[in-house]
Design a protein that fits this description.
The protein is mainly beta and 220 residues long. The chain is built from two helices and 16 strands.
Length: 220
């Protein structure tokens, strides 16, 4: 066959057989590193890929309702939203009563309403509130009145005591602010904050408690 424009059929055949350098080899398109990662790491629907300190790794999907939250180095799943930096709790807005009969009373001399036991006042009377706290360090404060019949009031977060206040005084003092610093909350979540009568001063005559407000604020 005559040559046309320098084209030689034998050359064309050879180039197809040896995968000539000027043609794309389909085989060369396989083995994409991304495909290898996807196939080896992503084992479950919803999985993702994140990079560790050195290599890509599987990041297993979270459970329903969890949020992706950035840590110091890596993202991870978080069960809750972030907490507030400052929380003021009105005492009447309680979640449950563990012991005692508690009622709200309008006390003008105290600067507003307060919550206290109304009958059968006893050691161990307690009332609980629900509050969301992010991990961190907090100060807890509460406003009360002190008097000769007032008890010692403890505060617990998830049944762990974090503050204790002796509310006894020889004479009546209204709107007293008591504080406890350095309360560490190790994990974020919905917490139970309990106000609990826990004994009394040796000079106190009763286990009375009056709560005007509870305040929490984050310091670190």
């Amino acid at each position: 066959m005559p040559r046309m424009g320098g084209y030689v059929p034998a050359d064309h055949k050879t180039r197809h057989q040896d995968g000539g350098r000027d043609e794309i080899s389909i085989a060369s398109l396989s083995g994409d590193p991304a495909d290898t990662i996807n196939e080896s790491l992503l084992t479950t629907r919803g999985d993702m890929i994140r990079r560790s300190a050195t290599v890509p790794e599987r990041f297993a999907k979270g459970t329903s309702g969890k949020l992706l939250r950035m840590g110091a180095n890596d993202p991870d799943w978080s069960a809750e939203l972030f907490g507030e930096g400052h929380i003021t709790i009105l005492p009447i807005a309680y979640n449950s009563i563990g012991q005692g009969t508690w009622s709200s009373t309008d006390g003008a001399v105290l600067g507003g309403a307060y919550l206290g036991q109304s009958v059968s006042i006893a050691d161990g009377d307690n009332i609980s509130y629900k509050v969301y706290l992010d991990a961190g360090t907090y100060t807890l404060a509460f406003i009360t009145s002190t008097h000769s019949d007032m008890a010692i009031l403890d505060f617990d977060i998830d049944d762990v005591e974090v503050a204790s206040f002796d509310c006894y005084s020889a004479t009546f003092v209204s709107s007293v602010l008591k504080t406890q610093t350095g309360i560490v909350v190790s994990s974020a979540g919905l917490k139970t904050l309990k106000a609990r009568v826990h004994g009394k001063n040796a000079s106190a005559t009763s286990y009375q408690m009056r709560i005007q407000a509870i305040i929490l604020w984050r310091t670190a």
